[in-house]
Amino acid sequence: MIGATPDEETAVKLYDSTLAPNPRRVRIYLAEKGIKVPSVQVDIGKAENRAPEYLAKNPLGGVPILELDDGTFLAETIAICRYFEELHPNPPLFGTDPRDRALVEMWQRRMELNLFSMATGAFRNTHAFFKGRIPQVPEYGQVCKDAANKQLEWLDGELANRKFIAGDRYTVADITALCGIDFGRISDIRIQPGQKNLARWHEEVSARPSAKA
Ligand SMILES: N[C@@H](CCC(=O)N[C@@H](CS)C(=O)NCC(=O)O)C(=O)O
User: Fold this and answer.
1) Long-range CB pairs of 52-58, under 8 A, 24+ apart, other chains included
2) 0.90 cut: is pTM over it?
């Protein structure tokens, strides 16, 4: 079980994996909202997410999935977060007005494509975990790692003038960036000693209780 008090439980179910960065994004999001959702652990080490019963829920085999009470399966992290945002708008994690929502979308997308996906791309293409599971191209893994490290350099400059990734308020863009950076460590994607703004931001978002979800 993830989140708030038992009487706030919903009839939905989260297919979660504590090892993986995408489910962590959902757990942090839910913790920030104080939403409680029943969850089941999917052992991706044992390839449970590639078993026929799981593929019937999500043919792409990824975690997380959110199962709704009408039998719908939401199998994209941001789609799951957006679903909850509609039901529980406060505190807003996807922006507050048209301008702010567009800025959050822009930064969430940048963090997902240029940082998070580069960190997972480095891992998927170089780590023994995925050997024999997916076709690996180590050279592409290196390209991903370099791109992620370059993105950190750029982000450090961006964070000189504002508290969070998309402005003065914590948003889903911070969640994606935090999970991307933390997962990147295993592939040697790291905040460098001179990147003081990024380090300050990372310390602040890591100190929020949600970061432990
Ligand atoms: N489209 C998915 C991507 C899900 C995804 O790639 N999940 C990874 C964990 S972070 C996974 O299931 N990896 C295990 C595998 O591919 O076998 C989303 O953004 O939620």
Assistant:
1) 54/15, 57/15
2) yes
